[in-house]
């Protein structure tokens, strides 16, 4: 970068095109050229709650989920999660995930950086559900039984500014006991089409469907 270059600056959810006036070792002095009126954010706030998966799948979900418009990510310990995050490593892992999300937000010209929650227990996930207007859980058994409408109905009922929480299981999915408890806490089980999706694919499918519904159907 050098003086005279144009950059995007984001503040309080708004984006402006700015011209660089001066660069020092401590700061960059810019002047606003124009405000960008078009929003790069989904009109609803979608939180992706992922049962801890193996390997680097969580990094993929967070990176691509940010590009697709997720507002927040909530990893949680599901009963079938093979991965166990100990307290010593959790802070470093969350720090890395936040770095990945920040870089993905910059790359996709997001005006907001999605929130990355610390790993939660299943019980903590349930307690946080009260903060949301709509709570869904992706459940492969619903797909096997031919359920097609719950996800579409939820998107249709939502209004701009509302909050949606979608829960996804790890490899092997969520246990029946977990689904039962989620139902008791007003989560609606839904399928994401007739095919069984991988744990890293399902959240991206859901976000893509939400983007199509809210941003492209117009």
TrEMBL record:
GO molecular function: rRNA (uridine-N3-)-methyltransferase activity
Listed InterPro entries: Alpha/beta_knot_MTases (IPR029028), RsmE (IPR006700), RsmE_MTase_dom (IPR046886), tRNA_m1G_MTases_N (IPR029026)
Keywords: Cytoplasm, Methyltransferase, rRNA processing, S-adenosyl-L-methionine, Transferase
Entry's Gene Ontology BP terms: rRNA base methylation
Span of the signal peptide: none
Main location: cytoplasm
Catalytic reactions on record: uridine(1498) in 16S rRNA + S-adenosyl-L-methionine = N(3)-methyluridine(1498) in 16S rRNA + S-adenosyl-L-homocysteine + H(+)
GO CC list: cytoplasm
Enzyme Commission designation: 2.1.1.193
Compartmental location: Cytoplasm
Domain Ribosomal RNA small subunit methyltransferase E methyltransferase: 41-210
Similarity comment text for this entry: Belongs to the RNA methyltransferase RsmE family.
Function text: Specifically methylates the N3 position of the uracil ring of uridine 1498 (m3U1498) in 16S rRNA. Acts on the fully assembled 30S ribosomal subunit.
Name of the featured protein: Ribosomal RNA small subunit methyltransferase E
Organism: Bacillus anthracis (anthrax bacterium)
